[in-house]
Amino acid sequence: MNGETLLTALGLVFIFEGLLPLLGPAVWRRTFSQLLQLHDGQIRFFGLLALVLGLVLMALAL
Fold this sequence. Notes:
There is one protein chain. By secondary structure, the chain is mainly α. The chain has one domain (about 5-60). The protein has three helices and no strands. The longest helix is centred in the last third of the chain and has 22 residues, at about 40-60. The radius of gyration is 15 Å and the shape is flat. The mean pLDDT is about 90.
């Protein structure tokens, strides 16, 4: 992996992260307020799930 690949990956993350607030700010705000009501353990579980999914996708891409 070189620097260009890393910058491309980070750019894609920012693009995907910006889509929902751009296209549906009310939905984004409602979703974010629901996230604030979750317990720490629930947030950690979703973080772990996202991490594992990312690792699986990377392994499939290699």
